[in-house]
C-alpha cells in the first residue's frame, strides 16, 4: 500500500516534470549555443537622455543605456554644436547602466536647448529642453514653498470638499446612491487621467526598452489586485471590530486619492523644476479646484456612519498630504520611471476603490447598478471632472 | 500588498539613481573652448584634447603629392602611371571614440592627391577590392569612355585603366560615380587631381585641403565637418608655416548635404584662383564660398608670426570640426621650405 502510494506520487512528479524538460529542450534549441533560428538582425544600440539639469555654467545630462548591447559615449553637443564634456563615472555603459555627462556651457535662462549625445558608432541621440531653468537646489525655503503649494492643492480643497458631508448625511438613500455613484465617476475619471499622464511621461522620457505601456498596465493590475486583497481584509476585519465599514471604505478612497495626488504633486514639482512657471501656475489652480470634488468622494461613504470629525480630518490628510511629498520628489529628484510607477499605482488603487463603492451600492439594495441615481451619478461625476480638468 | 508597493518602490529607486561605481579618486582637469576649467573624476569627452588612435594622418596628407611612375612615349609625351585601389570595408576612428565605415581610395579619405603637368598622359590603373561596384570619375577634359560613369568596375578585384591627357590646368576633384552617388561620395570615395601648367607656378609651400563632412548616423546630415577628414585636427595640430613665404593651398569642397561651404582666413587675405584654370587671381579676399566640388587655389604670405585661425565662416561647420590653425614661425631665411615641382 505504502509502496503504491509512493510510486503514484513519483508518477505525479514525473508527469509534471516531463513537459517542463521538453520546455527546457525547446528553449535550448531556440536560444542555445549554435542556434541560429532567432538570428533576426543586428542589435542596435540605444541610449536615453533621461534628465537634463542646468547648473551654474554647466549642463548635466543623465544618460542611460537602454538598448540591448553595451555602448560607449563619445561626444556631447549643445544645439548640435560639439562641446567638450566630462562623463562620470566613465563612458562605457552596460545595459541599463547610466552616466552623468557634464557639459560646461554658458546657457541662458528660459531659452530652449537640444542636448545631443553621440555614441561610438556615430549615432546621435538628443533631448529637447523647452526652457532652461536653474536646477532646483534642495533648500529649506524651497521645501517650504512646495509644502505650501502641496497644502493648497491637496489638503485644503479636500477639506473644503468634506464640508459637503452634513448635506449628504441628510439625504435619502437614492440620493445617497447618486452621490456614491458620483464618487465612482469622479474616481474613474481620475484613474484615466493618471494613466494618460503616465503614458505621456513614458512617451516623452522613457526608453522603448522599458515597454512603458506594459509597465503601466502591469503596475496598475498589481496595485489593483494587491489593494483588492488587502481592502477586503480590512473591510472584513472592520465588520468584527469597531472600525465601521464606511470608515474602511473611506480610508481606501483616501489612500487611492492620496496616491493620485502624489502624482499631481510630482507634476507640479517637476514643472516648477523645469521652469515652466505659467504651466505650473495652471496646474496649481486646476488641481486645487479639481480636488474639492475629491472631498465629496471621501465624504459620501462616511456620511452613513457616525460623524467622526477627527477620522474625517485624518482621511483628508491621507488623501491630500501626498501632494506635498509629490511636489518635493518631483522638484528635487524627478525621474520619469518613478513618476510612471506612482501614477500607475494611483490608477490601480482608484480602480479598486470603484469596485468597492459599486459593491457597496449593490449591497445596499441597488443590485443591477442601473438605477437612475447610479447612472446619472456616475455620468455627472465624470462630467464634473472633465469640466474642471479643462481648467488645467 | 504593501510589500508589493515596497518592492516596486525599491526597484524604481534603484532605477533612478545611477549605479554607484567604484570610487575614482583620480581627478582630471580640462579646459573648454571658452576657457572654463572643469575638474572631473570621470572621463573627458573632447575631440580637441583627447588623444585618438586615428589611422589617417592629416599632416601627411596635407603636403603629399603623387606624381606617378614616369615614362616617356615614342612621341616624347610624358606618361604618368598611378595605381588606385578602392575598398569599402574599413572601420576608422574619425574622431576620438567614434568609429565610422569609410570607403577609401588607397586606404584613405580623401584618396591620394595625384598630380600631373598639362599635356602629360595620365594612366590610372584602377582596382576595385570593395564589395560593391566603384569607378573613378575625373573632373577635367577626357574622352567619353574614360569618364567613370558608364563603365562600372565590379568589386572583389575588378579592374579598369583610365587613360587621358592631363588638362585643363587647375585643381580638380575625382570621385566614384556609381549610384546611389551621394552614398559613394559621403563615405569617402574622392580625392584631388592637380594639373600643373607647363610654365610652372612660382615656388611655394604647397598644401591640399579637402573640405569634407561625415554623416555617421546616416540621416543625410553631417555629424562632423573637417578639413582633411579629421574634425578639429589642425586646431589640435597647427599647420606650421614660415613668415614671408608664399603659401599655396589647393582647396576642394567635397561636402554633401549642405548647399555651401566656405573658407575664412584670419589676419590675412589671399589671392584666389577659382578652379585654378586661370593664372591671374580673380579675388583678393579672406573669404570664399564654395558649392559642391567647387575648388580653387589660394595664395598668401604671413608677415607676422603667431597663431592664425582658418575655418568655415558657416560657423556651424567650424563648431563641428572644420577649423584649423596656421602656426606662423618667424623665418628670416625666406623661401626656405618651398617644395619642388615633380619632374
Structure description:
The complex is a heterodimer of chains A (392) and B (343). With 392 residues, chain A is an alpha+beta fold. Chain A contains 11 helices and 9 strands. In chain A, the strands form 2 sheets. In chain A, strands 3, 4, 6, 8 and 9 form a 5-stranded antiparallel beta sheet that branches. In chain A, strand 8 and strand 9 form a beta hairpin. Chain A is flat, with a radius of gyration of 26 Å. Chain A starts with a helix and ends with a helix. The model of chain A has no long low-confidence stretch (mean pLDDT 80). With 343 residues, chain B is mainly β. Chain B has a single domain, classed as Cupredoxins -  blue copper proteins (Immunoglobulin-like), CATH 2.60.40. Helices cover 10% and strands 40% of the residues of chain B. Chain B has a 6-stranded mixed beta sheet. In chain B, a hairpin with a 5-residue loop joins strand 1 and strand 2. The radius of gyration of chain B is 24 Å and the shape is globular. About 3% of the residues of chain B have low confidence. At the A-B interface, strand 3, strand 4, strand 5, strand 7 and helix 5 of A face helix 1, strand 3 and strand 6 of B. Strand 5 of chain A pairs antiparallel with strand 3 of chain B. Chain B: It catalyses: nitric oxide + Fe(III)-[cytochrome c] + H2O = Fe(II)-[cytochrome c] + nitrite + 2 H(+).
In short:
Chain A has 392 residues and is of the alpha+beta class. Chain A is 62% helix and 14% strand. Chain A has eleven helices and nine strands.
List the topology elements.
The complex is a heterodimer of chains A (392) and B (343).
Chain A lengths: L1 H30 L15 E9 L2 E8 L5 E8 L2 E3 L1 E4 L3 E2 L4 E7 L8 E7 L4 E6 L10 H23 L2 H5 L3 H33 L6 H29 L4 H29 L3 H26 L6 H12 L1 H11 L3 H28 L8 H18 L3
Antiparallel strand pairs in A: 1-2, 2-7, 3-4, 3-6, 3-8, 5-7, 8-9
Helix pairs in contact in A: 2-7, 2-8, 2-9, 4-7, 4-10, 4-11, 5-6, 5-10, 6-7, 6-8, 6-9, 6-10, 7-8, 7-11
Chain B lengths: L1 H15 L11 E4 L5 E4 L2 E3 L12 H5 L6 E4 L5 E18 L2 E8 L8 E4 L3 E8 L8 E2 L19 E8 L4 E6 L5 H6 L3 E7 L8 E10 L9 E4 L5 H4 L2 E4 L4 E7 L7 E5 L4 E5 L8 E3 L1 E4 L4 E6 L5 E6 L3 H5 L3 E7 L14
Parallel strand pairs in B: 5-8, 7-12, 13-16, 15-23
Antiparallel strand pairs in B: 1-2, 4-5, 5-6, 8-10, 9-11, 11-12, 13-14, 16-21, 17-20, 17-22, 18-19, 18-21, 22-23
Amino acid at each position: 500500500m505504502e509502496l503504491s502510494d509512493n510510486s503514484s506520487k513519483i508518477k505525479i512528479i514525473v508527469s509534471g516534470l516531463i513537459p517542463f524538460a521538453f520546455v527546457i529542450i525547446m528553449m535550448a534549441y531556440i536560444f542555445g549555443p549554435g542556434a541560429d533560428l532567432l538570428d533576426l538582425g543586428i542589435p542596435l544600440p540605444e541610449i536615453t537622455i533621461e534628465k537634463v539639469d542646468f547648473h551654474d555654467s554647466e549642463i548635466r545630462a543623465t544618460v542611460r543605456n537602454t538598448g540591448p548591447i553595451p555602448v560607449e559615449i563619445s561626444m556631447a553637443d549643445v544645439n548640435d554644436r560639439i562641446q567638450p564634456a566630462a562623463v562620470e563615472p566613465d563612458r562605457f555603459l552596460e545595459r541599463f547602466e547610466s552616466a552623468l555627462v557634464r557639459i560646461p556651457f554658458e546657457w541662458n535662462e528660459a531659452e530652449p536647448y537640444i542636448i545631443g549625445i553621440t555614441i561610438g558608432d556615430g549615432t546621435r541621440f538628443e533631448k529637447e529642453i523647452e526652457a532652461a531653468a536653474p536646477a532646483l537646489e534642495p533648500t529649506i525655503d524651497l521645501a517650504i514653498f512646495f509644502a505650501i503649494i502641496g497644502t493648497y492643492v491637496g489638503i485644503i480643497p479636500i477639506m473644503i470638499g468634506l464640508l459637503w458631508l452634513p448635506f449628504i448625511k441628510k439625504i435619502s438613500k437614492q440620493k445617497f446612491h447618486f452621490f456614491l455613484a458620483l464618487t465612482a465617476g469622479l474616481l474613474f475619471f481620475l484613474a484615466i487621467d493618471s494613466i494618460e499622464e503616465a503614458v505621456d511621461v513614458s512617451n516623452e522620457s522613457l526608453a522603448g526598452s522599458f515597454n512603458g505601456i506594459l509597465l503601466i498596465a502591469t503596475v496598475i493590475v498589481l496595485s489593483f489586485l494587491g489593494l483588492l486583497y488587502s481592502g477586503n481584509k480590512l473591510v472584513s476585519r472592520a465588520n468584527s471590530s469597531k472600525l465601521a465599514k464606511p470608515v474602511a471604505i473611506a480610508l481606501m478612497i483616501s489612500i487611492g486619492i492620496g496616491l493620485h495626488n502624489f502624482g499631481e504633486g510630482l507634476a507640479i514639482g517637476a514643472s516648477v523644476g523645469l521652469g515652466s512657471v505659467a504651466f505650473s501656475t495652471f496646474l496649481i489652480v486646476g488641481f486645487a479646484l479639481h480636488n474639492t470634488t475629491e472631498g465629496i468622494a471621501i465624504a459620501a461613504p462616511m456620511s452613513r456612519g457616525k460623524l467622526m470629525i477627527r477620522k474625517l480630518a485624518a482621511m483628508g490628510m491621507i488623501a491630500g498630504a501626498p501632494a506635498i511629498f509629490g511636489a518635493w520628489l518631483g522638484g528635487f529628484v524627478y525621474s520619469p520611471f518613478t513618476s510612471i510607477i506612482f501614477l500607475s499605482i494611483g490608477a490601480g488603487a482608484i480602480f479598486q476603490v470603484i469596485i468597492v463603492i459599486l459593491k457597496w451600492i449593490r449591497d445596499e439594495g441597488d443590485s443591477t447598478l442601473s438605477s437612475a441615481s447610479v447612472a446619472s451619478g456616475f455620468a455627472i461625476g465624470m462630467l464634473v471632472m472633465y469640466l474642471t480638468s479643462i481648467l488645467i | 500588498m504593501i510589500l508589493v508597493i515596497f518592492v516596486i518602490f525599491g526597484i524604481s529607486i534603484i532605477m533612478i539613481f545611477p549605479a554607484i561605481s567604484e570610487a575614482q579618486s583620480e581627478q582630471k582637469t580640462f579646459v573648454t573652448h571658452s576657457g572654463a576649467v572643469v575638474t572631473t573624476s570621470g572621463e573627458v569627452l573632447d575631440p580637441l584634447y583627447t588623444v585618438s588612435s586615428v589611422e589617417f594622418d592629416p599632416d601627411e596628407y596635407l603636403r603629399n603629392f603623387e606624381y606617378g611612375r614616369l615614362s616617356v612615349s615614342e612621341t616624347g609625351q610624358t606618361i604618368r602611371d598611378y595605381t588606385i585601389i578602392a575598398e569599402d570595408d574599413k572601420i576608422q576612428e574619425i574622431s576620438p571614440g567614434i568609429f565610422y565605415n569609410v570607403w577609401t581610395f588607397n586606404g584613405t579619405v580623401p584618396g591620394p592627391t595625384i598630380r600631373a603637368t598639362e599635356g602629360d598622359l595620365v594612366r590610372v590603373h584602377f582596382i576595385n577590392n570593395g564589395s560593391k561596384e566603384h569607378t573613378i570619375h575625373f573632373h577635367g577634359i577626357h574622352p567619353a569612355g574614360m569618364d567613370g560613369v558608364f563603365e562600372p568596375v565590379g568589386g572583389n578585384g575588378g579592374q579598369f585603366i583610365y587613360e587621358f591627357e592631363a588638362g585643363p590646368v587647375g585643381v580638380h576633384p575625382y570621385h566614384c560615380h556609381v549610384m546611389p552617388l551621394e552614398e559613394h561620395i559621403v563615405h569617402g570615395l574622392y580625392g584631388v587631381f592637380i594639373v600643373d601648367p607647363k610654365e610652372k607656378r612660382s615656388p611655394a609651400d604647397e598644401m591640399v585641403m579637402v573640405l569634407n563632412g561625415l554623416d555617421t548616423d546616416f540621416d543625410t546630415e553631417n555629424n562632423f565637418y573637417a578639413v582633411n577628414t579629421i574634425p578639429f585636427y589642425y586646431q589640435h595640430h597647427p599647420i606650421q608655416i614660415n613668415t614671408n613665404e608664399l603659401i599655396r593651398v589647393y582647396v576642394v569642397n567635397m561636402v554633401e548635404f549642405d548647399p555651401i561651404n566656405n573658407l575664412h582666413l584670419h589676419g590675412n587675405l589671399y589671392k584666389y584662383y577659382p578652379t585654378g584654370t586661370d593664372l591671374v587671381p580673380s579675388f583678393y579676399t579672406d573669404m570664399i564660398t564654395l558649392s559642391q566640388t567647387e575648388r580653387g587655389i589660394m595664395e598668401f604670405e604671413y608677415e607676422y608670426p603667431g597663431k592664425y585661425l582658418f575655418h568655415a565662416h558657416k560657423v556651424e561647420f567650424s563648431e563641428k570640426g572644420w577649423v584649423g590653425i596656421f602656426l606662423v614661425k618667424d623665418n628670416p631665411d625666406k623661401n626656405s621650405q618651398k617644395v619642388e615641382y615633380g619632374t
